[in-house]
Amino acid sequence: MKLSRMADYAVTLTSIIAQQPEELHTVAALAVKTGLGVPTISQILKKLTRYGLLSSVRGANGGYCLAMGAETVTMVHVIEAMEGPISLTRCLSKSKGGCSIESLCNAKNSWEKVNNAIKDALSKISLADVSK
Prior knowledge:
Structural class: mainly alpha
Shape: elongated
Number of domains: 1
Helix content: 40-55%
CATH superfamily: Winged helix-like DNA-binding domain superfamily/Winged helix DNA-binding domain
Radius of gyration: 17 Å
Number of strands: 2
């Protein structure tokens, strides 16, 4: 399993925000801290806000902050906000037409166990853990 670059950046950005949860973080300040481009950061933060992980405040003194405690937000939340449900193989995907040989495959149950183990492990790692 390899995370997309955007999911990786989302983990980095949320962990920075979690380090100072009482402050509002601007896109410009996050760009300086991370070296990421403003458009990329804006896209990620908007997606995380729509998913309910971040809150945004508009205006001259606005910015982004966590919508809930850093102990509550897990790596599963951040990854799924960016990429959708964690699914290691097509047969585990909820979308139609995921796998053309699904009816012949004996490995689906095994893949499901592996997928669940990974998701369970990621659900035990919070932003508070990552931002230390």
